[in-house]
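Translate sequence into C-alpha cells.
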Amino acid sequence: MKPELKYCWEDFVAGQTKEFGNRIVSEDDILSFAKEYDPQPFHVNREAAEQTIFKGLIASGWQTCSFMMRMICDEYLLDSSCQGSPGLDFVKWLKPVRPGDCIRVRSTVLETRSMNSKPHLGLVSSRWECLNQNNDVVTSMQGSLIFIKRTQ
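Result follows.
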C-alpha cells in the first residue's frame, strides 16, 4: 500500500457523517446523459416531460448516482486504499433532480468490520444521500466498500 494514502479502513468510524461536493445540474447535462444512457421521454424531451407526472425535464436517477459517485471519489476514494465494493444494498430515488438544482452528498458510516477471510482488509458500510439546494434528500444509497487496513 502506498504510504501517502490519506484514508484507510481505520479512518472510518460508525456514526461519522460529513457533507461534501457541489454540482449544479444543467439542462445540457441531463439531455446528454439521457440521450446516451436513459432515453426516456422525461429525460430527453422538454415538451414530452411536461406531460408526465414530473411536469418537466428531470435527470435520470442513474445520472444522479453518477454525480454522487464523482463527488465521493473527489472527496475521499481517490485518496484512499479502497479496493472496490461488493455492491449496493439499495438505491432510492426520492425526488426528481431538475435543471438548475445544486446537489451535494452526505455520507454516514453505518458500520465497520474486519474481513475474517482477508485480515488485511475491512468493510465500511455507509449510507450516501444526495441533497439539493433545499436540503431535500433526492437520492439515497446504501452499500459497503472494501479498504486495506493501515495496520495489519
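Note: The helical segments are 27-37, 41-44, 46-50, 61-75.
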